[in-house]
Amino acid sequence: MHSQHIIYKKAETLSSKLSEWRRYLHRYPELSFQERNTASFVENELRDITDIQVFAGKEETGLETGVVGILKKGEGPVVALRADMDALPIQEETDAAYSSQNTGIMHACGHDAHTTMLLGAAHVLADKQSSFSGTIKFLFQPAEETTDSNGQSGAPYFINHGLLDDVSVAFALHMDPEFTPGHIRLHEGPSMANVDTFQAVIKGTGGHGAYPHLGTDPVWMLSFVLQAVQGVTSRKTSPLTPAVISIGEIKAGSSTNVIPDHVKIQGTLRSYDKAARAHIEKELHQAFSIVESMGGSYELEVEKGEPALNNDKEAVQVFQSTIEEIFPHFIMKDEPYGLGGEDFGYMADKIPTAMLFLGAGFTNTTNKGLHMPCFDIQEEILPVGVSLLAGSAIHYLR
């Protein structure tokens, strides 16, 4: 039997354990930078695996809740496999027996499954029958979803701690509720977006609601800015360039008869490449500068978030070959994953990486998308994910 098929057989023998792990993690989700119980669970499971060195905590990983396992079998390159561990501030609305026990917190993005699959991959790869020459790092990363007071999510801390310094390539996967098991999205090049945010203030003089002509009205000026902002992507950017600007919050005034002296606006900017990222920011300033011709002024601050996830050509080929060897009947879709963000993009900026989206959804996907309170996955894909992570590492190192 081909070695890659043996990997799936090994993963299948873990099925009940994988389900048990995933349901425990789903039942007790934790927010970004607070994954103490999750990290402890992962650390304990890793320490039970022979030949895996375990590193945990801030001194050893760069983050209090970070956990890293290292498996070395002979000389050779270093491959990293990464999973995120944090949950979201969402009240779960599923009726699953394993639904969240932590009020207002839920694994609505599948990180419980990612963590479970990486634990499974560690078991499979540590098995004496798994033949490769090199080193595998299992990166259990906190805080993919949100940033801390320094504006950083989890990946930059792992990078700054040197965890990627000796790594040749990194692989990761993500749950995909848009497709059922048996489907995989895998794309070379930009696959998820640069994620930036902006905060702006339009300033006028304010005044009495009955006498608007005696002052400068920032709400009136805002109406022109909104049109100009929407024009940045529809008229100032090539239709062939993926880009989105969305305004998520507008705040102005507190009285029916008082024209406020300022309006606050904030939103998000999404793009795939560095040129588009810079172009959108430049045009956003132009859009807000309209108010200067109307007697107003503005302040605009753009905060850079995670960079676009850029899948490396050779790393994608490793994933593709692994899929073809283990799951030749799977349907592959070569398309980007959308304009959502993923802090694995920070790692992709440093070393060759590839992330795939693994179909895990139900036939009826209504209200079961990512970041939704009814999100769930089909657990039959747990050993599939284990096989893809373990198989890609072996394929690269053999």
UniProtKB/TrEMBL annotation:
<dbReference type="Pfam" id="PF07687">
    <property type="entry name" value="M20_dimer"/>
</dbReference>
<dbReference type="InterPro" id="IPR002933">
    <property type="entry name" value="Peptidase_M20"/>
</dbReference>
<protein>
    <submittedName>
        <fullName>Amidohydrolase</fullName>
    </submittedName>
</protein>
<dbReference type="GO" id="GO:0046872">
    <property type="term" value="F:metal ion binding"/>
</dbReference>
<dbReference type="Pfam" id="PF01546">
    <property type="entry name" value="Peptidase_M20"/>
</dbReference>
<dbReference type="InterPro" id="IPR017439">
    <property type="entry name" value="Amidohydrolase"/>
</dbReference>
<dbReference type="InterPro" id="IPR011650">
    <property type="entry name" value="Peptidase_M20_dimer"/>
</dbReference>
<keyword id="KW-0378">Hydrolase</keyword>
<keyword id="KW-0464">Manganese</keyword>
<feature type="binding site">
    <location>
        <position position="109"/>
    </location>
    <ligand>
        <name>Mn(2+)</name>
    </ligand>
</feature>
<feature type="binding site">
    <location>
        <position position="111"/>
    </location>
    <ligand>
        <name>Mn(2+)</name>
    </ligand>
</feature>
<feature type="binding site">
    <location>
        <position position="174"/>
    </location>
    <ligand>
        <name>Mn(2+)</name>
    </ligand>
</feature>
<dbReference type="InterPro" id="IPR036264">
    <property type="entry name" value="Bact_exopeptidase_dim_dom"/>
</dbReference>
<feature type="binding site">
    <location>
        <position position="145"/>
    </location>
    <ligand>
        <name>Mn(2+)</name>
    </ligand>
</feature>
<feature type="binding site">
    <location>
        <position position="371"/>
    </location>
    <ligand>
        <name>Mn(2+)</name>
    </ligand>
</feature>
<keyword id="KW-0479">Metal-binding</keyword>
<feature type="domain" description="Peptidase M20 dimerisation">
    <location>
        <begin position="197"/>
        <end position="288"/>
    </location>
</feature>
<dbReference type="GO" id="GO:0019877">
    <property type="term" value="P:diaminopimelate biosynthetic process"/>
</dbReference>
<dbReference type="GO" id="GO:0050118">
    <property type="term" value="F:N-acetyldiaminopimelate deacetylase activity"/>
</dbReference>
